[in-house]
TrEMBL record, chains A, B, C, D:
The UniProt record lists the keyword Secreted: no
Organism: Temperatibacter marinus
Assigned keywords, A-Z: Amino-acid biosynthesis, Arginine biosynthesis, Cytoplasm, NADP, Oxidoreductase
Functional description taken from the UniProt entry: Catalyzes the NADPH-dependent reduction of N-acetyl-5-glutamyl phosphate to yield N-acetyl-L-glutamate 5-semialdehyde.
CDD domains on file: AGPR_1_C, AGPR_1_N
Protein known as: N-acetyl-gamma-glutamyl-phosphate reductase
Enzyme Commission number(s): 1.2.1.38
Keyword Oxidoreductase applies: yes
Compartments where found: Cytoplasm
GO cellular component, one term: cytoplasm
Family: Belongs to the NAGSA dehydrogenase family. Type 1 subfamily.
Active site: C161
UniProt xrefs under Gene3D superfamilies: Dihydrodipicolinate Reductase, domain 2 (3.30.360.10), NAD(P)-binding Rossmann-like Domain (3.40.50.720)
One MF annotation (Gene Ontology) recorded for this entry: N-acetyl-gamma-glutamyl-phosphate reductase activity
Length: 357, 357, 357, 357
């Protein structure tokens, strides 16, 4: 790629928080031109009409997906930030219309292509998958673990926010046989953007502020995805406990994982195991022994921070990690995948320092 | 006690949040007169000078403890809301000065008389206990479990806020052999008042707001107290895992406990076991099956809400409970104990509905 | 009224925040029995289903208004917490159905009977008033100024939250000719409960949190009501400037009023003028000279706090006041009116101390 | 300046929020190398020790100012983020030690060089100014109005946060004779970072959260600075009313200004007047007629947004503006000045989109 040829990107579903964070990050990405934005109900408006913090930025008018001719539209990469179940149809259509004519790469931020088993998909999401043929083509976009496959992929399924935090924390430990694959208990806490911009009573300021609420206990849809990927690292089927909680803050996700050490392993072994992975990754940091991961360390940035502690129960350890759910847990990770797919420096456009306070 | 003879109470350490919540609740207690308030550094000021929400209420001027003659002061009950380690000396002095002259009852809200074993106290709090002789006299003031002893006590040690929530949730289950005493993992979340009014960087709005922080991982001082009391119910030594987190809210505490079912026990058994206890208690509520405990249900009130859920890991259950850390977790529970000690209706002065939103 | 005969009350529209705060306060009112609760879309449910903080309280099941036979229902007082424009029809129906059969007193918390001039009503609310005949009967329920009329009223129109704070602050000064009636500028700040529980994007946590938003600049519906009542005190037509702002908090309203001193009047005169009124009122407090009104002083309580300061511009003063918008600004004031209408002590059931922190 | 010669900058007082936001922005500034960081009490530590969100960034160890040899240290520009009254001594020392040896440019973020009149300085800040000789050399760094002087300055005094928002909003209107210079009333609202990281009770989460507090009514130290600069634009002495309020949010400042139109001027004239200025400036945006400035539009960015509305009082207008107090109100503006002083594009390193939500 030469300097004067920028990547042309489109964002489908730009009126949600994930879509808008893609725009925020891509506006200043040195190798990208945002060429296409869609939002069905807000078509005809500008991003600044919907998100006034974009005032002053020159962006395409919002369009409807149905009005795009995929065979001719000048776009190299599509970010698909549409609701679950909607994505699969749209993406199938894009590939069909462009087949043999041009190459478009699709980065999907929904759950539609994350699960390898269509039955599991149906059981957790309630509908038949309508693009099963595309599934083998989809690469699970946890960049740190599927980088090589992502490089040549034309369809990447970005992980959910909880899976991202959990997998980055536990995969290094499982792969190195440092912790057991059984009895993994994860207590997760997320900011309210995790629930999107939908008009639900439970998302009102008055309901969330000054409050701490668990939700989806025992049946959150991120579970099968987490188990699928932990099982890969453990090389055996993992069933884990996962309980998310809603925190009165906008951004940020903290996971506290209670795990069992493998025989003869120590906390120091776990630290070393995490260090091996963190040291070679751009966006993963193992904190010092006395530091605790906190969401304010990563607000607005693509970073992941982690640490591990001795539990009071013998043979157990506590692994704590934090990410920004909208960045590393969603839009930032999607751009990281784009960088890999397009042969760019993986950090390109993702060097923002966290905004604190 | 006749109707026209109110209980005269004193509050030592009235300038902290625990002290001020005692005042808030006792002002409207129908059987109480607040006769004495102390605050060393603020002596000479009024409560309204320090806490302007008391403006318009007629309260004693703040005094210094050293200026009180315990043998003659007209007080029936002392609430001691002083820092840990300070309480023991003061309470020893009160009992010495009043011995043989008058009877004063002391309700201590600090940690000084919670631990039965002086060695455990020293190990966790770092100093020798200076009133060991008083320890056997101190009743652990978890009213629901020590009501009979509290009735005749003249020294009650109120539980910490985390222990209150955890013990009310798990003691019924352990006592009825519904859960195992091993491998109990507790993930706790607390509002910022849990840290008091002290000037620490970690308590600043800018550090806490829009953030989620774990703290005291593996070594929080409430641990030995929780284990002591869980062991009583389990009739064996319990060692548990406990990880607290700081949430950007003022009041409220949520605990998520990951426990193992005893053989052949089901979630329905656990529900029934909790119901047995909750049904006979004023301040304990088992929620309906599909409801989730949340701190907003109990803000400003003396209530405890709990529920139990099936875990995805076979043989495990998730128990979730919420209290207001300043009320049921501290000042409200102290008044509940006073009611029991003075032969009043246990709910007296504690009927406030939670403030929501 | 004898002790053993409690006032039977009904609350129409109990599923909103105003309705639920009426319930919170009336549950512990010593002279009240809640006999009737309505909520159209939630009929058949319990208050605890909708507002889980009421769990454990014995309350009537939610009903539909259309199913109530007003001629026979055993209710002495109706609180009407329905949306603007709905109230007038319902209240007209109540009076028609009970006329000549029984006496029911109605306390309306909507805007429907606040404006004396039907044309003004239509201009600001957009619809014709459908119960004009009832308007002369309606007493404006700013208790401190219409107490005598409220005593014998059977229809009381409770002021809006902003008008309450503004009128209590400025009426004493206008009536005593201490400030000029021209060029009154009011900058108001309100918590989010002021917007109710409606599902609007602007009420989402993510939109309000960490943000400060003005709204309704130059055209808020509370304006004509404020001007109507300021004009009464000024004995001349008042036109004022009023700009509300939304603050990321649940409860509380702060108004900052920029006013001109009358000739030869001083700040000290204004203090004295406010003191005259505050000293004789239960719920009004003039702060000390160096104290500043703040919403945390009144959270959850029926109190109003005020102070006055010298402005840097010669001849100008700054008057600052705070209330809890849901209590003194709505439900608490409604109960205060009920107390007056039913011959009870005005403070009855309204002695809650503010909840701080 | 060639590409391979970056500007070497030092930041004095890097452990405050202003200092840390300078670091956040300068890390990614393409023409800057951070060469020197100081923090007296934290000397020897890293930025990441104090502000863990800097983990992973390579930055100089914190130093003490006294240990720097200004004559030899390799620094082109010094940002001075020290407390008021401290700055003047340090800056005097820097210029004395470098005089005749090398040229260092100083950008001061304190109040020390903002006021032109030493008597005014003394009256508002309480101490004699100790570097009066430097004052004529100091350029007031409101870039949009002093750009030409800033270009050649070696000492720039950056405006306070409130002055920045107020002056950018009102100077265009005063200069173009669109509003009167008398009776300007400003109601300001600021996030908590405006108070810095100091350990004061009023900055605790528990005191600020769920609260709205006015402060410094009638005597805030930004007043003389605002009046000094408004007077320049009005070409006559301006005395204005200014009342700041503390809002429970981290970043952001909203000012609501109540002003009088000049004879025969309309709101449309004011809009046009603001448009003239905004259109030619990088960081100033006049919103559409129906949009309202809100702090979330500028969180973390160097932008200023403004709008103007008709007041209900005849002849008056309401001007509302918002900035991020730490960026455009402090660190961002300082970097904007550096860009001008060093001949860079004024937007360089300041293109961050606001972080929303």
């Amino acid at each position: 790629m030469t300097n004067n040829k920028k990547i042309k990107v489109g964002i489908l579903g730009a009126s949600g928080y994930t879509g808008s964070d893609l725009v925020r990050l891509l506006i200043n990405h040195p190798n990208v031109d945002i060429k296409l934005l869609t939002a069905e109900r807000k078509a005809g408006q500008t991003m600044a009409d919907i998100f006034p913090h974009f005032i002053g930025h020159d962006l395409p008018i919002l369009n409807k997906i149905g009005e795009i001719d995929w065979a001719t539209v000048e776009v190299d990469v599509i970010f698909c930030a549409l609701p679950h179940a909607t994505s699969q149809e749209i993406i199938k259509g894009i590939f069909e219309q462009t087949s043999g004519k041009k190459q478009i790469k699709v980065i999907d931020l929904s759950a539609d292509f994350r699960l390898r088993d269509p039955d599991t998909y149906k059981r957790w999401y309630g509908n038949d998958h309508t693009a099963i043929a595309l599934q083998p083509r989809a690469i699970y976009g946890l960049t740190e673990y599927y980088r090589e496959s992502v490089k040549s992929a034309d369809l990447v399924a970005c992980p959910g926010c909880y899976p991202t935090a959990i997998l980055l924390a536990l995969k290094p430990l499982l792969k190195q046989d440092l912790i057991k694959s059984e009895d993994i208990i994860i207590d997760a806490k997320s900011g309210v953007t995790g629930a999107g911009r939908s008009l639900r009573e439970s998302n009102l300021f008055t309901e969330v502020s000054e409050a701490m609420n668990p939700y989806g206990v025992g049946h959150h849809r991120h579970m099968p995805e987490i188990e699928q990927e932990l099982s890969v690292s453990a090389e055996s089927a993992v069933t884990m406990s996962f309980t998310p909680h809603l925190v009165p803050m906008n951004r940020g996700e903290l996971i506290t994982a209670y795990v069992k050490l493998e025989e003869n392993k120590t906390i120091e072994d776990l630290r070393k195991g995490l260090a091996v992975t963190c040291d070679k990754e751009h966006f993963m940091t193992l904190l010092k022994e006395d530091q605790m991961p906190a969401t304010r360390m990563v607000r607005g940035s693509n970073n992941f921070v982690v640490n591990v502690y001795k539990d009071r129960i013998k043979g157990r350890a506590i692994v704590i990690a934090a990410i920004d759910n909208l960045v590393k847990g969603s839009s930032g990770q999607a751009i990281q995948n784009m960088n890999v797919m397009m042969g760019l420096d993986e950090e390109c456009g993702l060097k923002q320092v966290a905004l604190f306070p």
